[in-house]
Amino acid sequence: MVRQLSATESSTTITLWQSLLMGSFALVLLPFVWVTPTPLQLALLILMGLVGGAAQWLLTEAWASAQVSSLAPYSYSALLWSVLFGWVAFGDVPGVSMLAGAH
Q1: What are the angstrom distances between the C-alpha of 95 and each of 39, 51, 100, 101?
Q2: What is the block-wise mean pLDDT of the chain (103 residues), using blocks of 10 residues?
Q3: What is the pLDDT of residue 27?
Q4: Phi, psi angle pair for 37, to nearest 5°
């Protein structure tokens, strides 16, 4: 879909609309789960937003300019990287439910 949209829209526009759509979904739940962040947490949230936005823009650029079949291995490897990072950084060992969902 991103590849088709990129014929008429820029990656910045596509990323902006994706962010607005996902943000509006999250906004619906906000009154039920809001916890005021500390200044450090706020700074980290802003940093995560900037890094996440840049990553989303780069992914949109990749999907717009490359064949999906050439990007699929990188997309699938994200699960392996997530498991490895969780294990190394947090000592999180994948359980049966995670392995079942990975199929």
Answers
A1: 34, 29, 9, 10
A2: 85 91 92 95 96 92 86 84 92 86 72
A3: 93
A4: -80, 155
CB 94 within 8 A of CB 79: no
Q: How far apart are CA 10 and CA 94, in angstroms?
A: 38
69-to-10, 13, 66, 74, 82 alpha-carbon distances in Å: 22, 24, 8, 10, 21
φ, ψ for residue 92 (rounded to 5)? -85, 115
Q: What is the reported pLDDT for 103? A: 65
User: How much is the pLDDT for 67?
Assistant: 84
Phi-psi bin for 92: left (phi > 0), alpha (psi -120 to 50), beta?
beta
Q: Where are the alpha helices (DSSP H) in the chain?
A: 2-5, 11-33, 39-65, 68-90, 96-101
Contact (Cβ atoms closer than 8 angstroms) between residue 3 and residue 63: yes
